[in-house]
Amino acid sequence: MNQLDALKQFTTVVADTGDFKQLDAFKPQDATTNPSLILKAVQKADYAPLVKDTVNQFRGRPMDEIVDRLLVRFGCEILSLIPGRVSTEVDARLSFDTAATVARGERLIELYQAQGIATDRVLIKVASTWEGIQAAEQLERKGIHTNLTLLFAFCQAVACGQAKVQLISPFVGRIYDWYKKSAGAAWVEADNAEANDPGVKSVAQIYNYYKKFGIQTEVMGASFRNVGQITALAGCDLLTISPDLLATLAASEAPLQASLSADAAKAASIEHVSFDEASFRLALNNDAMATEKLAEGIRAFCVDAVKLEQLLLAA
Fold first, then answer.
1. Is residue 24 pLDDT above 90, yes or no?
2. CA–CA gap between residue 115 and residue 163 (Å, rounded)
3. How deeply is 141 buried, as exposed, middle or buried, from its count of CB atoms within 10 A (0-12, 13-18, 19+)?
4. How confident is the model at residue 52 (pLDDT cuts 50, 70, 90)?
5. Whether 125 is catalytic
6. What is the DSSP letter of 94?
7. What's the start-to-end Cα distance of the chain, in Å?
8. Mean of the per-residue pLDDT values for the chain?
9. DSSP-derived 3-state class of residue 123
10. What DSSP element (H or E) covers 155?
11. What is the pLDDT of residue 167?
12. Which residue of 35, 48, 78, 179 has the smallest Cβ count within 10 Å?
C-alpha cells in the first residue's frame, strides 16, 4: 500500500488545487481553492475557454459578481470529480468586514444552488480575523458551512470552536517558514522535523484541544512544505495537500501510522480557555508569528484578487 492510500485510512485527504484537471489521479474526498490557486489555474491555456465563456456570459455585470461566478464555475467542475465538498473563498479584501463577508458568502451559496449544488457540498472560506470568525458564526446559523483559513494562532482556533464553524485550516508550512526564517543560521532542520516541526506542533495542539473538549469543528491541516509534515499529522480529521505532494505520497511505500488520536487527546491534561474580542486581539497581537503571517496572507490574497480581476477585464 502506498503512503497516500495508507493516509486515507486515518485522515480525509483533500486536494489543494484550483486545477480540477489534476483531481482524477488522486481521488481526494474534498478539494480546496483560494485566490492564488484560482489565479494560477486561469492562466493555463486549458482554462482559457472556461474563463472567456464566463466573462462573455456576464459581461457588463459588476466585477465582483463576475469573479464569484468564475469561482463557482471552477467549484462546480471540481464537484463533478469528487464525492465530497469544495471550499470557495470570500474576497480577502472583505477580511475585516463582517456584514460584507456574510453577504458574499450568501451570494456564493445562491450561485451554487442555482447550478443544482446542495449547500452541504460547499464550504465558504473566510480569513480567521475576529470579523471573519463572527461572519462565519452568522453563516453557520443560516445553515451555510464555513472553512476558516489563514489560521496560525491557538486563539484563532479556540474562537472558531466557540463560533461552531464547520472546519478550520491551520497553516503548517507558513508557520514552519516563519520560525525557520526567524532562527536564521541557528536553525537545525533535523531538530525541527516531523513531530518537532513548529507547524505540526501547532496543529496537534489544536486537534488535541478540540477532541479533549468535544468541539465538533473539523481540523484540516494545510500549507505543507514536505511529506514529513503530512505523515506527522496522520490521524488529523482532514489534510489538504498539493498535487505535487500527493504524487510524492502515492509514489512511496514507506510505512505510515496514525500520529494523532482522539482517545489520546481525551486522556491528556489540557486547560479549557475562551476568548472574547479583547482577549482574542491581545492574544493574537502577542503572537508575533501569527500576527505577521495573517497580515501577510491577507495582503497576498488581496493582490491576487486584483490580478484575477485584471485578467477578467482583458478576457
1. no
2. 29
3. exposed
4. very high
5. yes
6. G
7. 45
8. 97
9. strand
10. helix 154-162
11. 98
12. 48
Within a 10 A sphere around the Cβ of 170, how many other Cβ atoms?
Answer: 31
Separation between Cα atoms, residue 54 and residue 52, nearest integer Å:
5
* pLDDT of 35 above 90: no
Q: What is the pLDDT of residue 236?
A: 98
Of residues 167, 155, 137, the one with CA closest to residue 238 = 167
Distance (Å, whole) CA 286 – CA 267 = 29
pLDDT for res 243? 96
CA pair distance 185, 31, nearest whole angstrom: 37
Q: How does pLDDT run across 122-180, given as a tens digit for each residue?
A: 999 999 999 999 999 999 999 999 999 999 999 999 999 999 999 999 999 999 999 99
- Cβ-proximal residues to 181 (8 Å cutoff; 6+ apart), any chain: none
CA distance 225 to 241: 10
Residue 187 has pLDDT above 90, yes or no: yes
Q: Alpha-carbon distance 311 to 39, whole Å?
A: 9
CA-to-CA distance for 305 and 282, rounded, in angstroms? 29
32: three-class secondary structure by DSSP: strand
Catalytic residue among 8, 21, 52, 125: 125
What secondary structure letter does DSSP report for 186?
A: G
